[in-house]
What does this fold into?
Amino acid sequence: TDELPPEPKEIKPHPYGVEMGRLVTMLKEMKEGTISQFLTQSFTRVSPAVARRICEGAGISTRAGVKKIGRDEADKIYHAIQETKIKAPSTDCISPIGEDLLIKGLHQVVPAEFYVAATRPPSVYRGNPFQVEVALAYGGQSVVQKVSAEVLDQLLDQTDSRTIRQFLVNTFDGIGNDAADKIIKEADFGSRQSPTKLDAEQRETLHHAMRNVKLSDGQGIQVYRYANRVPLQFKMRDCA
It folds into this structure.
């Protein structure tokens, strides 16, 4: 695509998504001001009226200085936040890929007969905006069946796999152990035979087996997972 997705807008953290330890740290980072100012300036969806209800639930004055808020008071504020009705955060901080681009992307990497994609409306969980997108490709000819004899020779010369099975599984997308075993059986090779030691006749036999064996029952399923997180909630370990 030549079009960029809508640019996500950075938002402040939502009170429901902030843990106790993070709340204490945020209080310490604010050098001056009242607890009401802290709540309205540090969080999204917290108006002066909402801040007042939180303070009332915690039994703390809205004019109390943040410097005087200790661990016990912070604990009361944390629990008061959970019991106070606060509007869900805005979801314009999320930039979805979109169904059209998901399908176009699958067409480029997955040879299949059927493609479908769906994008759910944005939602919120524990104060964190999120959006679910999924795309599925099914059927079609396996990549291994489209490889020419010349390309197969190049791949065999370049591989560092120790066995034919490893070569097939590691080189071709969607080929699992079951499909690899079918090809090996059709070619009448040993499962631990080295791919780099195949002679010209054996390479031709392997190519013939790859093109003619039905692999639909032995193909693996690949899942491409992407994390689309709120910028302020981004964590590298959440991405895969």
Residues 228-240 have pLDDT under 50 and may be disordered. The CA atoms of residues 185 and 191 lie 8 Å apart. The chain is about 40% helix and 10% strand.
